[in-house]
Amino acid sequence: MNYKRLGERIRQERKKLNLTQAALAADVDISDTYMGAIERGERSLTLDTLVRLVTRLGVTIDFMLADSVSDSDPNIMEQFKQITDGQPLERKQLAINVLRTIFSHFENND
After folding, report:
1. Does the N terminus or the C terminus of the chain have fewer Cβ atoms within 10 A?
2. Are 78 and 53 in contact (CB under 8 A)?
3. 14-60: pLDDT as tens digits
4. How far is CA 30 from CA 21, 35, 48, 76, in A?
5. Which residues have CB under 8 Å from 40's CB, separation 6+?
6. Are the C-beta atoms of 56 and 28 separated by less than 8 Å?
């Protein structure tokens, strides 16, 4: 996870709304100091804090994380495995078909 890039994106979205760090921190119930450290990429944040931030900023988590996880992230395959473990074969196949459709859409729009 590239926390520096995530922090930059949070800062960009905050500035689009003309919010100060202090105002955003107050809105999501964190300290000003913690907000500054998040924006500088010096601190990680919990999922709960991330959800509150993106909700206040009016963006989605996938938008916020789009360029924060590198293509070579070694956890990608592990994440796929965790999601699909315990699922019946039919659901796994359906998930693969959905991914194929999504990637086909991306290729057609590039």
Report:
1. C
2. no
3. 999 999 999 999 999 999 999 999 999 999 999 999 999 999 999 98
4. 10, 7, 11, 30
5. 4, 7
6. yes
CA distances from 101 to 66, 92, 108 (A): 19, 14, 10
Q: Provide the residue type at 103 as one letter.
A: F
Please give the Cα distance from 107 to 64 (Å, whole number): 22
Over the stretch 70-110, which tens digit does the pLDDT of each residue have?
555 667 777 777 888 888 889 888 888 888 888 888 888 87
CA atoms within 13 A on the CB side of 106: 6
Two structure tokens written together for 46: 């919990």
CA–CA gap between residue 22 and residue 82 (Å, rounded)? 37
Residue found by looking up tokens 């009016």 in the block: 58
User: What sign does the CA torsion over 50, 51, 57, 63 have?
Assistant: positive
For the entire predicted model, the pTM comes to 0.63
Is-contact 24 50, C-beta < 8 A?
no
